[in-house]
Amino acid sequence: MGKTDLRVLGQMPLNAEPPCLVELTKHPITPLHLAYARNHSVIKDLASEFDSYTVKIDGEMEGVEEKVLNVKDMIASFPRKVAVAALICAGNRRAKMQEKTGKEVRGIKWSEGTIANARWGGVLLRDILLSAGIPEQEDAQKGFHVCFSSNVAPCEDDATYGGSIPLEEIMAKDGAAMLAYEMNDAPLTPDHGYPLRVVVPGYFGMRWVKWVDRITISRNESPNFYQQRDYKMLPECVTSPEKAIKEDWWGRTPAMQRLNCNSVVARVQCLTFNCPDQKTLKVTGYAYSHSPISRVEISGDGGETWHEARITYQEGNWSWSLWEGEVVVDIDVDALEWANNGQRNGRSKTKLTVISRAFDHSGDAQDTDCRWNLRGVGFCGVGIGSVEV
Q1: Which of 58, 100, 107, 306 lies 20 to 30 angstroms, CA to CA, from 148?
Q2: Distance (Å, rounded) from C-alpha 83 to C-alpha 98?
Q3: Residue 242, class by beta-carbon neighbours within 10 Å (0-12 exposed, 13-18 middle, 19+ buried)?
Q4: Comparing C-alpha atoms, which of 90, 370, 113 is closest to residue 266?
Q5: Cα dihedral sign for 130, 199, 146, 172?
Q6: Are 207 and 163 in contact (CB under 8 A)?
């Protein structure tokens, strides 16, 4: 199965997601053919340029040594780090936001499959920046940002693609921010940033800059369009791009960075068929946050009562969590017959709905009343799934 088997939402540039959550959540580590494609530019195949590909490091921080790293030499000179981490588009569940709020959102109408849990291999950014003269002391790092950019191809809204992360986050001793050259123990493919991409576990995917070729230490966030004029959860009062610009909401709203706590229902199955007024439902799904998921709860009565699901997979600090659980739902058979004009022919059907919510080890909980925003980013309303019985 190749990229053409994904549900394509845009050809130029290519944007596509797996069409089936059931298939996606069968795999703790997302196989390449189910890894979504998100691009703001054409996909560049740089295979012929591997030997000459370089990353420039510079900045305005005192003591930083401007240097140019050849990717081949970098791989040979620095220890290899491996981390399992979920790559998640900020627009994941955008279509669900539009459906639940009844309000149009601007952007690709992603469903709930723009997530890929992969094993990333590369060089720690901390090691690279220390070699360039960045101090280890946290106090000296505060107020600075690490700006990543790719000058490989022009983008839809800017000449280059870029984004930034606070320096102290990149330099965290327990972090795993890296320049990755492997995905699932194989070299990156062109659509995932070959030969080199940024990986920042616990952060939204738009900060994981593909085809990175420059790293700049700055007192300011990246000036790039995708840091300053996109990927921000604008307040509900901002109902048009014109208003966002006129009232400077882009400048007043912080850029999205860390993942929020979220869960999605992938499948609901009915396990009992003979009992007409009570059904046992099996529910499966996924959850993620910027720290490990501590528990997932499901409800079959609209949130009146909650039942803890079982986490079946979680690896390290930054992977997604796969979960499953069962819930018993009571059905008012008399009301159902009345809705079907009193007919009892064995064919009456009703739709049963289950919702989910997640909690993480940092104490964050899924914001189940997540509000509408113009760009439809960061949606984390309850996970929701149904089955007809």
Answers
A1: 107
A2: 34
A3: exposed
A4: 113
A5: negative
A6: yes
3-state secondary structure of 246: helix
Q: Look-up: residue for tokens 């690279």? A: 128
**Tokens at residue 27, please?**
């795999």
Cβ atoms of 265 and 352 closer than 8 Å:
no
The structure tokens listed for 9 are 């939402």
Beta strands in the chain, from DSSP E residues, in sequence order: 7-10, 15-17, 54-59, 67-70, 81-88, 115-124, 145-150, 161-166, 178-183, 186-187, 197-199, 214-218, 262-270, 278-288, 293-299, 307-308, 310-313, 321-330, 351-360, 383-388
Q: How many Cβ atoms are within 10 Å of 341's Cβ, its own excluded?
A: 7
Strand partners, 365: 359
Tokens of 98: 């539009």
> Of 295, 296, 294, 265, whose CA–CA distance to 282 is shortest?
265
- Residue 227, H or E segment: helix 225-228
Confidence of residue 2 (pLDDT cuts 50, 70, 90): very low
Phi, psi for 141 (deg, rounded to 5): -85, -20
Q: Establish whether the linkage from the previous residue to 13 is cis, with ω within 30° of 0.
A: yes
* Cα–Cα distance measured from residue 389 to residue 276, given in angstroms and rounded to the nearest whole number: 9
d(CA 319, CA 316): 6
What are the tens digits of pLDDT across the range 209-252? Answer: 999 999 999 999 999 999 999 999 999 999 999 999 999 999 99
Of 29, 116, 21, 18, whose CA–CA distance to 315 is shortest?
29
Cross-strand partners of 308? 297
- Backbone dihedral region for residue 290 (phi beyond 0: left; psi -120 to 50: alpha; all else: beta): alpha
* 38 three-class SS: coil
What is the rounded CA–CA span in Å between residue 125 and residue 164? 13
0.90 exceeded by the pTM?
A: yes
Q: What does the chain come to in residues?
A: 389
Between CA 92 and CA 100, with CA 95 as vertex, the angle to 5 degrees is 115
